[in-house]
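2024-03-11 09:14:02 INFO worker-7 job=invfold-0412 stage=load source=structure_tokens
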């Protein structure tokens, strides 16, 4: 007997819909510590320990090669730490050492390799990938972890200013593809973030400085008092002083402001058209590409911020005094705020080298309406949806002239920013 329902007994499929709806709460801790891999530091073991799950937990570590000249026994330290805490964690493979910097995100073979190690080590969704390194290595390892078994738990141990105060505390990861930054990636909140500020001592001056640009960015958008702190402490923060005590509050407050934004903006996974935390980034990403990544991300962000601040001033938003304070702070920290790539093919909007193509890429990454951040005042960001390219060219000229004046002392020291 055929018991299959007849067409008559079911409602017409085209007339029916089921509304699926659920929400998932995310939470993770961002810790600040010193001596993360010292066996007597319980932080990492505590981040993994969970009485409700079987122990010990499997873990694979991915380590930034750029750390090794300065921390020669880092790989051994991670192994020794795991042995000292064998009741809660097991290293299931030797730590994977990957190139540091943007090279980590430009070679898809590295993703394959991490996947292979995860597969061979039989990691599951209750296991951990521990990523130790700068923002690029964290982005790579996070992407590999997020795509293996549709998501293995990620522990981040950021080791640069930028990754401790910005990239490592957020929910994004990714690699570059088709000559496009972060073309492949996922949104994947980490299990925990473990910031050891003492490792920042071994950064070279460029990387030490570069990460401060993200602190300036978020201060400009949200916190005028933080901007004042940065102004006051610029001489201590700038190389060669590099005062770690002055840097600690910078990393902490910047991380806090990023976390607060992600939690309260109503759009942690950037489904809308706006990315307020990417102030200055439309130009920054383009400049990174145009310079073949010779510019660090943070260095490019400093230029992108300077450009958008100059444009904010020229279009009647930010005061002249505000702009001068911002550019002076960046100069005091040692940022170079002009590169010729700002103007390459600037009159040829269809040329991929034209800076303004960065506006299209920025919009395309999210889809929807173009939305960039500008400043009404220090601590007061504002979204706009259209730009005047002629005025952007004036803003570029302003940066060029300021940079030229700074490099020829006989010229007037305080160029006109009106
Ligand atoms: N996922 C996000 O939300 C997000 C946000 C912002 C930036 N990013 C990405 O982060 C990357 C930039 O990260 P970054 O600024 O941390 O630089 P980076 O990862 O490129 O590292 C810079 C250099 O520092 C080395 N290094 C790392 N830690 C060190 C230490 N303690 N001592 C000495 N050398 C060390 C690295 O090997 C590398 O050579 C970019 O790819 C950018 O796109 C991601
Ligand atoms: Zn950034």
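2024-03-11 09:14:09 INFO worker-7 stage=emit residues=418
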């Amino acid at each position: 007997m055929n018991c299959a329902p007849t067409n008559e007994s079911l409602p017409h499929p085209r007339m029916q819909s089921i509304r699926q709806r659920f929400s998932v709460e995310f939470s993770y801790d961002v810790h600040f510590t010193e001596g993360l891999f010292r066996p007597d530091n319980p932080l990492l073991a505590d981040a993994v320990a969970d009485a409700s799950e079987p122990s010990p937990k499997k873990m694979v570590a991915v380590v930034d090669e750029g750390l090794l000249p300065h921390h020669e026994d880092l790989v051994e330290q991670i192994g020794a730490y795991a042995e000292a805490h064998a009741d809660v964690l097991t290293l299931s493979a030797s730590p994977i050492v990957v190139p540091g910097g943007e090279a980590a995100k430009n070679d898809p073979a590295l993703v394959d390799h991490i996947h292979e190690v995860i597969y061979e080590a039989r990691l599951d969704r209750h296991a951990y990938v521990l990523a130790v390194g700068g923002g690029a290595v964290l982005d790579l390892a996070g992407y590999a972890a997020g795509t293996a078994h549709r998501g293995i738990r990620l522990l981040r141990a950021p080791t640069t200013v930028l990754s401790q105060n910005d990239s490592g505390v957020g929910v994004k990861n990714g690699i570059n593809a088709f000559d496009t930054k972060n073309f492949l990636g996922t949104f994947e909140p980490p299990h925990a973030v473990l910031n050891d500020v003492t490792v920042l001592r071994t950064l070279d001056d460029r990387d030490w400085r570069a990460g401060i640009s993200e602190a300036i960015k978020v201060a400009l958008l949200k916190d005028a008092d933080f901007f004042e702190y940065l102004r006051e402490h610029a001489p201590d923060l700038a190389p060669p002083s590099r005062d770690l005590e002055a840097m600690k509050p910078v990393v902490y407050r910047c991380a806090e402001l990023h976390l607060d934004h992600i939690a309260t903006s109503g759009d942690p996974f950037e489904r809308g058209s706006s990315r307020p935390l990417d102030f200055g980034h439309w130009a920054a990403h383009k400049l990174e590409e145009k310079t073949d990544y010779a510019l660090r991300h943070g260095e490019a962000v400093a230029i992108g911020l300077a450009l958008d601040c100059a444009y904010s001033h020229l279009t009647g938003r930010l005061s002249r005094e505000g702009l001068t304070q911002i550019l002076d702070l960046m100069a005091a920290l040692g940022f170079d705020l002009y590169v010729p790539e700002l103007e390459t093919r600037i009159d040829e909007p269809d040329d991929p080298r034209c800076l303004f193509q960065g506006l299209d890429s920025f919009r395309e990454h999210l889809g929807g309406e173009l939305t960039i951040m500008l400043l009404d005042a220090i601590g007061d960001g504002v979204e706009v949806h259209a730009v005047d390219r002629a005025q952007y060219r004036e803003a570029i000229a302003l940066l060029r002239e300021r940079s030229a004046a700074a490099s020829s002392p006989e010229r007037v020291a305080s160029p006109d920013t009106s």
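2024-03-11 09:14:09 INFO worker-7 stage=report msg="The longest strand covers residues 57-64."
2024-03-11 09:14:10 INFO worker-7 job finished
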